[in-house]
Design a protein that fits this description.
Strand order of the largest sheet: 7-8-6-5-4-3-2-1-9
Helix content: 40-55%
Radius of gyration: 21 Å
Strand content: 15-25%
CATH superfamily of the largest domain: tm_1862 like domain
Bound molecules: S-adenosylmethionine, iron/sulfur cluster
Number of helices: 14
Order of helices and strands: EHEHEHEHHEHEHHEEHEEEHEHEHHEEH
CATH architecture of the largest domain: Alpha-Beta Horseshoe
Number of strands: 15
């Protein structure tokens, strides 16, 4: 099994918190699509033995692409790779791109999962973050997607925004529940180096919210979604049964993925590869014969173990000692048990059969717990 990732590095405007790789200049869009098609074809040898069960258009903002371009990319992938006919195909979209017509066409192209970046249902937050849409557009994009009949729908929310009160956050969650959205990815705002928010924070133009308020918002998110029947299946992800993200599950299980587009990563089970983080260089390389990864990192056994712990402990499935034995050997099982035993007593981790999972208490300290397992 494997996942396919396509990075679309364009956005209509730059959100003040974001450091993902994107550009707001759309003039290279057509050339980029040509380069993507070429990379898809070039990569097939490396991934010819895999069966792909997910395809994910991420960004940036994939919904800046026309239906024709999206279709060309999907068809090129289907032509060169073993692609499940029932594969999950996700597209990340911004609300202002989601007209009724566009959504109808996405569905016809086989997009069966849509991830809409809402972030907040409050215009004050959206303006502060410099989002390209209003709260009203956010709501109608969700309704339009539901009416278009796209099977799986997820929305992104951000909490811990400066000035966001507890009741603002409650209202965001209530809105989402009222709209009947079956999957939510909710992230605490982070101040990424080089972003406008980071700069503003240093100049005290914005004041980060207190840690207690952050924790209160996170706790409420967990309780409210649980009451509503959502499963908290990964630290930032909540879903009703049948709505989990198959693509992310692949990634969390350490399954290989092919990534195309500027700044995209690939992983073939032993090494990780990076594409160049520049639209122009990516396009010009695609025109030469030297079109290849800009970097490659062979993963040692400790790297793979650390990665496994890091992603697995953040999920409700936890880490599995059989899998550790199989992938890393007995010594790693003993080491894992040894570290984990200190956390059982504190009720931060729990063990059932061969699965070690984080408890509801442990979830608030996940990063610290995970770090304790790292081997160098
Ligand atoms: C890279 S964006 C791509 C999706 C789409 N362009 C959008 O904005 O909705 C994926 C998600 O990451 C989250 N995100 C990006 N930067 C963040 C930050 N600094 N803090 C918290 N969440 C962030 C947002 O929720 C965003 O929807
Ligand atoms: S959050 Fe999404 S729309 Fe905003 S800059 Fe980042 S990738 Fe672009």
């Amino acid at each position: 099994m494997a996942g396919f990732y396509v990075h679309i590095p364009f956005c209509r405007q730059a959100c003040r918190y974001c450091d993902f790789y994107f550009t707001v200049s759309l003039k290279y869009k057509d050339e980029l699509v040509e380069a993507l098609l070429k990379e898809i074809k070039n990569k097939k040898k490396q991934f010819q033995n895999y069966q792909f069960n997910t395809l994910y258009f991420g960004g940036g903002t994939p919904s800046v692409l026309s239906e024709i371009d999206i279709n060309r990319i999907i068809e090129e992938i289907k032509t060169h790779y073993n692609f499940d006919s029932k594969a999950e195909i996700t597209l990340e979209a911004n609300p202002d791109d989601l007209s009724v017509e566009y959504l109808k066409n996405l569905k016809l192209l086989g997009i069966n999962r849509l991830s809409i970046g809402i972030q907040s249902f409050h215009d004050r937050d959206l303006k502060l973050m410099r989002r390209s849409h209003s709260a009203e557009q956010a709501i109608s994009s969700i309704k339009n997607a539901q009416n278009a009949g796209i099977q799986k729908l997820t929305i992104d929310l951000i909490y811990g925004i400066p000035g966001m009160s507890f009741s603002d956050w409650q209202e965001n969650l209530e809105k989402l529940i009222e709209l009947g959205v079956p999957h939510i990815s909710a992230y605490h705002l982070t101040y990424e180096p080089g972003t406008v928010f980071d700069h503003w924070r240093k100049k005290k133009k914005i004041i980060p919210i207190e840690e207690d308020s952050s924790l209160e918002q996170f706790k409420y998110l967990i309780e409210r979604t649980r009451k509503e029947g959502f499963q908290h299946y990964e630290i930032s992800n909540f879903a009703r049964e049948g709505h989990f993200s198959e693509h992310n599950k692949n990634y969390w299980k350490g399954i290989p993925y092919a990534g195309v587009g500027p700044a995209a990563h690939s992983y073939d089970g032993t090494a990780r590869y990076w594409n160049i983080s520049s639209v122009q260089k990516y396009i010009s390389e695609s025109k030469s014969d030297s079109f290849n990864y800009s970097e490659k990192e062979m993963l040692g056994v400790n790297d793979r173990y650390n990665e496994y712990i890091m992603v697995s402990l953040r999920t409700m499935w936890g880490i599995n000692t059989d899998k550790i034995k199989q992938s890393f050997g007995e010594d790693y099982v003993r080491y894992t048990e040894d570290i984990a035993s200190g956390f059982y007593k504190k009720e931060l981790l729990t063990k059932k059969g061969n699965d070690i999972r984080i408890t509801s208490r442990g979830i608030f300290l996940a990063d610290q717990i995970i770090r304790e397992f790292f081997r160098v």
